[in-house]
Amino acid sequence: MDYQKILSKITPTRQEKEAIKRFTNKLIKTINQIAEKKNIKAKATLVGSVAKGTWLKGEADIDIFIKFPLETSEEKLKKDGLQLGYECIKAMNGKAEERYAAHPYVTGHIKGYEVDLVPCYDIKDASQLKSAVDRTILHTRYIKKNLKKEQIKEVLLLKRFMKALGAYGSEFKVGGFAGYLCELLIIVYRNFERVLEAAALKWRKGQIIDIEDHGTGKYFNDPLIVIDPIDKNRNVAAALTQQKLSEFIIVARNFLENPKEDYFQEVEYSHDKEKIQTKFKERKSKCIILEFNPPNVPADTLYPQLKKTMDTLVSHLSMEGFKVNRSSYWTDEEKNSLIIFEFETWKLPAYRRHMGPRIWSRKHTKRFHKKYGNRIWVEGDRLFVERKRKTTKPETCLKSLLRGVEYLGVGKHVKEELKKGYRILDINEYLKGEPSQEVLRFLDAFLDPGKHLWRS
């Protein structure tokens, strides 16, 4: 397949590269000048995909790390790092936003760019690590040294392919391939197609890739194990979920069998409410929406809590007899969160069979008889009785569970929002309202969970 057409769409233009170079040079110069003026021992440096030249056209994430000497206390690093970040953004007429990773950092919105200004320690190797972000400088250095100039276009193809699949990004929301991981895969397999061939034909569960032969792969238990060349104790693919790895392998096979440009474009989901309503009706199942406000926490805190909440509720509903076929969650991270449940079983009889003790224990059988009287019977060597269900409908069961949300194993911050209020709606009732286009696309994706895997 000729990739030139795709590369022409995803490779930054010369003008974009030059503009970003001027902008990042000015950022670095501004920070260093402020540091010198304030007598702060720190120096700014460019890291990440922009430093390596591996960013996709129009999607430059600018990461400036502010390096502090190793002897700097953590408290001083945080204080001075934030000060330099805020003052740099102010000097360049930008808007500042404080965020948190291993420690606080500042994101600046300046002249249409989003810039992360992150304080770190000036380490020379992994043995000097003081926080997770410190590795980034070593990562940048390693890629610049080992990734050949002609391989940059192979990285861009792989990143675009991953992005079209929805598997690009190591944040919890995605659970996919980090940019650094994509770059390492190109170094190992030399080009885009060979990465796909390895995944499609050779990778097995727990596949180990150890570029520098550190020999530590056996100590990890992840779907894919890629030992960090600069830190033998770290798996670069630790955030990659089995789900996203499996999807990548399937799509790699599909592409190699029938290469198409379509595999480099995200699939489109419908936001036609009437069509989505029809699809739900055709399924003839029961779908319920739990709607509530999202807590005001960072995305990498929010998404794990939404998943934990969903998994806990699915488990409890299933224990009560309401078997869940599939479930999913969505949030706009600001005003709205949804969890959808599709039930295989949603109509239950008024009574349920309750298993008692084995007949061999006189003490326990006597206690069971005292509690339930002559309604009990024997099957094999066990006693049984019928007990009236608390509820026969999943909506009522869900309400009952949420009344005791304090004692459920749901996300800490999500729990507080659920205590404030929520709505439980049948999908047909929910769609009578005015859900946003983003919600409708989420529902369409829920109805067609494999759509992004095929380009027939």
TrEMBL record:
InterPro entries assigned to the protein according to its UniProt record, in alphabetical order: CAA_C, CCA-adding_arc, CCA_tRNA_nucleotrans_2, NT_2-5OAS_ClassI-CCAase, NT_sf, NuclTrfase_I-like_C, Polymerase_NTP_transf_dom, tRNA_NucTransf2
Start and end residues of each tRNA nucleotidyltransferase substrate binding domain: 154-265
Pfam annotation, one family: tRNA_NucTransf2
Needed cofactors: Mg(2+)
Binding, ATP: S49, K52, H139, K159, Y168
The reaction(s) this protein catalyses: a tRNA precursor + 2 CTP + ATP = a tRNA with a 3' CCA end + 3 diphosphate; L-tyrosyl-[protein] + ATP = O-(5'-adenylyl)-L-tyrosyl-[protein] + diphosphate; a tRNA with a 3' CCA end + 2 CTP + ATP = a tRNA with a 3' CCACCA end + 3 diphosphate; O-(5'-adenylyl)-L-tyrosyl-[protein] + ATP = O-[5'-(adenylyl-(5'->3')-adenylyl)]-L-tyrosyl-[protein] + diphosphate
Positions of the CCA-adding enzyme C-terminal domain: 285-425
PANTHER family the UniProt entry points to: CCA-ADDING ENZYME (PTHR39643)
Note: A single active site specifically recognizes both ATP and CTP and is responsible for their addition.
Protein's recorded name: CCA-adding enzyme
Organism per entry: Methanothermobacter tenebrarum
